[in-house]
Amino acid sequence: MTAGEPIIRWDWIASHAGEIGLRVGEHLELTAIAVIVGLAIAFALSFVALRLPQLYPPITFVSGTLYTIPSLALFAFLVPYTGLSIVTAEIGLVSYTLLILVRNIVGGIRDVPAEVRDAARGMGYTPRQMLWRIELPLALAVIFAGIRVATITTIGLVTVTALIGEGGLGYFILLGIQLFFSTPLIVGAVGSVLFAVIADAALVLVQRSLTPWSRIR
Amino acid sequence: MSFLGEVARWFADPENWQGPHGIPVRILEHLELSGLAIAIAVVIAAPIALYLGHTGRGGFIAINVANIGRALPSFALIGLGLLVAIPLGLGLGFWPTMFALVPLAIPPILTNTFVAVREVDRDVVDAARGMGLTERQILRSIEIPLGLPLILAGIRTSAVNVVATATLGAVVAGGALGRFIVDGFALRQYDQLVAGAILVALLAIATEVSFGALERGTVPPGIRATP
Known about the structure:
Largest interface: A-B, 41 and 40 residues
CATH superfamily of chain A: MetI-like
Number of domains of chain B: 1
Order of helices and strands of chain B: HHHHHHHHH
Largest sheet of chain B: none
Structural class of chain A: mainly alpha
Number of strands of chain B: 0
CATH architecture of chain A: Orthogonal Bundle
Mean pLDDT of chain A: 90
CATH topology of chain A: MetI-like fold
Number of helices of chain B: 9
Helix content of chain A: over 70%
Radius of gyration of chain A: 21 Å
Distance between the termini of chain A: 53 Å
Number of helices of chain A: 9
CATH class of chain A: Mainly Alpha
Mean pLDDT of chain B: 87
Number of domains of chain A: 1
Largest sheet of chain A: none
Low-confidence stretches of chain A: none
CATH topology of chain B: MetI-like fold
CATH architecture of chain B: Orthogonal Bundle
Helix content of chain B: over 70%
Strand content of chain A: under 5%
Oligomer: heterodimer
């Protein structure tokens, strides 16, 4: 960011291509772990909330409070216990996915029309079969909408974990800030936005292949 | 328990409450930064959204701005803020953070305000028009009051985001409450680190709660759900 310096030095990008690839891989890993673990926990919480509806408000209250706590503060709470580690990063990242995922899983399943449920019950479906063969498939579109939002949010939050020594592409943002050097800053910023766009498009494709009936209109 | 005791001792130390680096000053800095960012974002986004909502134009853009906004990582915005502020000679800290906070705050306000105006019952608007209200009067005395809770919900989303991201301003040498966290990390002073985290978390939750109360308070009596 000194005078006369071009905003992007392509030679720097070319000479750091290997490292950029490495950081993209890290970013993918941090995001994938967070979304997959978040989904597992969110499904468990959602099934509990569907069985015992009185537990739904407290579950959304706790996940909502976690969602409100700024990411850097949440990581700061954890560092004295879990150190500057991937565990700290993942606990924080997973916490942020829960509210969005639980809301969409519970909402999606509750929105399944009562007539469909009645028909399934009349055909002799057990509650377990009803969940797996009727409710979850029909709720899939809403659940996927939640997964998309959770994934995009996580990709952005991963950059913050650079401050606790993780970070994927966030590493370049921090490097750019520390060195007053615009090239890595732009690589980190543009890279993580591009990554979010590509991940979102990929999720749309996965959703389409999982819910072929939604294309027939 | 000893560690939490250290955090409690940090809060009890009068030195941490005094001078330009004390807790009250940091809270004020945080509120000043966040408040100004929200105010600027409202001034930019609200007129555009009200116009689009009232005329029904540009819905696609108004809705999609929110999705684009979500993909912009706050930490990247802070870095890009630095790229804008340094060539303008505005230095570190306050302005780079401001340049990150305003674009972060605009999308939820824009989208919610647009939807708030659009969702006002068209029959009510037609009735108002039939009674001879001008377009400006319809906007001011019908659409804005009826849409206010939803408009405020957008401002609340932005405010919580902005309060959270203002914390990151400390990374570009800003003040505010993030200072305690970033310094706590750098100096490995975990009492300061966790104390800062507690303050930031409380401020974010207080923002959420107070805007929530404001929203409920602004639902016009005529459309309030009767228990």
